[in-house]
Each structure stands twice: as C-alpha cells, then as structure tokens.
Amino acid sequence: MSRASTEYRYNRLTWPEMNEAIARQKLVILPTGSTEQHGHHLPLDVDLFLCESVCQEVGRRAPDRVLVLPPIPYGLNLHHIDFPGTIHVEPDVFINFCLNVTKSVAYHGFRKILVVNGHGSNAPLIDLVARKTVLETESLCFATTYFWFLMEAFKEVRESEVIAHADEFETSLYLHLAGDRVQMDKAVEDNDRMGEFVSSDSTMNYFVRFNDYWGRWTQTGVHGDPTKATAEKGRIIFEAAVDGLVRLVDELRDWPIERRADMHAGPVQSQIRW
Ligand SMILES: [Zn+2]
C-alpha cells in the first residue's frame, strides 16, 4: 500500500506522494477553529482542539479517502476581546486567507474540499469560503460545522438547556479528549440576556441575529452550564461527530461534478472577473 493511501495528514506526504493522493482524489479537509476565551475552566484552544481532534479521527478512520490539512487557528472574535488572550482576525482577512488555502488545494488538482468549522462565529464566513471556492475554481468545496453531526446523540445525554459556549457540550468533549486540561472546580453556569426575539449571544432559536461584546453581559465568559459536563457524554458525542463526518466524506466523494451548460443565444464576455 502506498503512503498516499494510508497517510491522512496532508503535510506528512512528499510531493511525489501528493501526486498519488491527487490521482486517488482524496477529499481534502480544512479544520478551522479559534483562539478565544472559554471561561475560567477551559483553555483558549477549545474550538481549535475539538474541531481538529474530530477531523484527525475522521482521517484515522478513512485514511484511504481523506487528507486533513493543518487547521486555521484564528477567527472572528472581536466580541470576546475584553477577555485576556483572545485573538481576533477580521472577517475579510479570514475569508481571503482560507480561500487562498482552498484555491491552492484546487490548483493542484483536488476536486473535492470540505471546510469543517469549530467556532460558531466563523460559520457564515466559512459558508462564503466554500461558495467562493466553487465559483472561482473547477473544484467543489463544502462547508459544515462538526456540531451538527452530534446533536441527536447529545439530545439523549444532555442535562442543560443552552448549547453556546464553554458549556456542557464543549466541556464534555474536552473532558473526553484531554480531561487533565479542564479545571472542573472552576466551572460555573452563566447565561446571556434574553428577550422575546433577541438574546445577547443569539446562537439559535432567535429570529434576530445579534452578538454583543461579551464584556457587556458576562463576567465569566461562559454561556451554558459546564457543571453538567462529563467525559462519558464527551465520548458519546465525539463518536457521533466522527461517524457522521465519515458518512459525509463518502457522500461528497460520490457527489458528481457536472458540466456547466450555457443557455445564452449570443456570445458572453467570459473574460470578466468578479
Ligand atoms: Zn467554543
């Protein structure tokens, strides 16, 4: 077996091996996270570490079909800047940086790319990265957030209402993957300001999109209840996320790339670039 079919880490291949990986049309995964405060009990690497761990495990289970890129460690985070250590990258810089990565991958001949998000605030940016990659290359690029694949499993074990930030879900996953880095004695519940239609961290179930500076409404940096977290819940949701993403990998690899049909009766100005 060639290394191109057994190595899932993108940058562990040599360039001749990369030619083989391209010939095999492995799906290239770009994990993205953030460096952002996560309360008193979790380190700043939560979004990055959790997302990369999930993607790496997908690679371990499907090494013949997947290459996992080094992750993007920063994102849109100015709303957390009142908490020491948080790193913010402007949305246009983030989009363009990720787009340069996906376009490089497309340039080499990979036709399918998957961007996996681990930081809620990056979701709309990653959506645009995937869409622009499709529109500006001959490859297909898809965007997802790994949380969606574990929600059903989490429903069965959760004991708190809110899933948002440094909460039962993220803390459980971190406890499962690296429990020695979680300071559970410092975990506290905290919530945002909620109205009928608006909340200060409108994660879901709100008609209005709004995210305030977190320094305005929380002293802890937590949104949710991490005291309910356990490593066992983390194990269950980690498995669900990895299983779902492996199934997604197979669906995307089978997804056809059709030829575009041009419906114009006359000539178009195909040199125009947007
Ligand atoms: Zn997080």
UniProtKB/TrEMBL annotation:
InterPro entries: Creatininase-like_sf, Creatininase/forma_Hydrolase
Cofactor requirements of the protein: Zn(2+)
Recorded superkingdom: Bacteria
GO terms for MF: creatininase activity; hydrolase activity, acting on carbon-nitrogen (but not peptide) bonds, in linear amides; metal ion binding
EC annotation from Swiss-Prot or TrEMBL: 3.5.2.10
Keywords from the UniProt entry: Hydrolase, Metal-binding, Zinc
Biological process annotations from GO: riboflavin biosynthetic process
Family membership: Belongs to the creatininase superfamily.
PANTHER family: 2-AMINO-5-FORMYLAMINO-6-RIBOSYLAMINOPYRIMIDIN-4(3H)-ONE 5'-MONOPHOSPHATE DEFORMYLASE, 3-DEHYDRO-SCYLLO-INOSOSE HYDROLASE
Listed name of the protein: Creatinine amidohydrolase
Native organism: Tautonia plasticadhaerens
Name of the encoding gene: crnA_1
